[in-house]
């Protein structure tokens, strides 16, 4: 069964009108860990499932839809809409309501996409019985559920990272909020002024030894073009990287954390660096 292609305007309205029927727990998740997609069927506006006792299945297409024949495809056979994948059956949660169901997953593993895709595209799905009707019979389904996925809330200092979970083979961006820095030499930096001193610490899985990767020492960082930060229209500086290639990890290296701080290109005293020197932990690749 082919989905109806909604216009951008309708998709936006769906977020607003139908948002109360479905939700994510936790509200601002780390999508490399387990979450639950919840739906209260009594709050959906499509009445085709009224009185239907299930079982119910999710049918999902964002952040990624698996093609026909894949083990995670929404349905199987020449009439997939009439035969939902048993892998996608939902669980009833009586503690939350008479017709509340959830589906549990680790989004990056389930959809087989990077965390950045989940945060940027969100999760879209609908709920249906195993046989969704169609092919001349009325469709049995909820309306589309369009959920925005926000990263975990962070207590941000002058320097912070996005996404909240760092993975060695995914893009990570380090931000420096220069407009709020009060160190005398760091106020109102211009393009080309800010350089990121950064190092990564972890373990060699073969030897068990602690290993550190550091593109440049702190005092040499201002002469390394790879460490120059870009300035955006808000006055913040940022540097994006894929840690594996940026640091040149060996195949046996397991990263633990990144430590960094920001300094001026021309460094003379401690007034030419920010006071923050945070550590950001890696998630599980």
Model description:
With 285 residues, this protein is mainly beta. The protein has 2 domains: 8-147, no CATH class; 159-281, Sandwich (Immunoglobulin-like), CATH 2.60.40. Helix content is 9%, strand content 28%. The protein is built from 4 helices and 15 strands. The chain has a 4-stranded antiparallel sheet with strand order 1-2-5-4. It has a 4-stranded antiparallel sheet with strand order 8-9-13-12. Strand 4 (91-92) and strand 5 (100-105) form a beta hairpin. It is elongated and about 75 Å long. The model is unreliable at 1-19 (pLDDT under 50).
Features:
mainly beta, 4-stranded antiparallel sheet, 2 domains, Immunoglobulin-like, elongated, 9% helix, disordered N terminus
In short:
By secondary structure, the chain is mainly beta.
Structural class: mainly beta
Mean pLDDT: 89
Q: How does the overall form come out from the CA principal axes?
A: elongated
- Strand % is 25-35%
Instruction: Please give the number of β-strands.
Output: 15
- Give the N-to-C terminal Cα separation: 35 Å
- Tell me the helix content: under 10%
**Low-pLDDT windows of residues:** 1-19
Task: State the major sheet.
Answer: 4 strands, antiparallel
One letter per element, helices H and strands E, the order comes to: HEEEEEHHEEEEEEEEHEE
Number of domains: 2
Strand order of the largest sheet: 1-2-5-4
Number of helices: 4
Whole-angstrom Rg = 24 Å
